[in-house]
Here is the input.
Amino acid sequence: MKVNSKLTYPLLLLFSFILLCSSTSQRIQIARVKYNGGGDWYSSKSALKNLIRYSNSSNNTNIHPQENIVSLQSDDVFLYPFIFLTGHGNVVFNETESTNLRSYLLGGGFLHICDNYGIDPYIRREMKKVFPELEFTVVPFSHPIYQQPFSFASGLPKVHEHNGKNPIGYGLFWKNRLICFYDYECDLGNGWEDPETYNDDPSVREKALKMGCNLIHYAFTH
Here is the structure.
């Protein structure tokens, strides 16, 4: 039976996570957000599968090896503890998507936004629809997301250069919980891609994957 009341979504999210985590035959899945506006939501095609593989092997997670694709228009978003949004261009959330995303994040879900270069003005505008009362703030290096299971004492690793800026991890916090992490001038998603895609130094790719593990670890434990 499909429940339509937005007030029930936090409970649905919680119970979905409990069922997924307690079942030996059902793996948790993570999902990529498909959005409107013309931006390339499908970029960094191999990123999540590689991150999942790395997390399962190095961080003892049991995530399904294939990502799912989810629209914020759909109630299916409440099935995933971790969702990933990336791209280079425009992003547009309608009223239903904004409402669903807010309910999802307040209900215990976690959103990772990856600026693949060019998404910044659009995602900031759209996240204001979701949380008009919140501002993106710099996540301090002392935050647990930089500490476990891998230590990043100086914050995000730099994967690709664009404007010569330092990488910055921004966050949205609700009642002291980090509900959305936004990597800017970093290109974490590119760092997770197949090695031959960008021919990055292996040490850079390793750092990107380790930081990705930290994001997953935080999302699954907070």
Q: What stands out?
A: The domain at 6-221 is CATH 3.40.50.12140 (Rossmann fold). DSSP finds seven helices and seven strands in the chain. The chain has a mean pLDDT of 90.
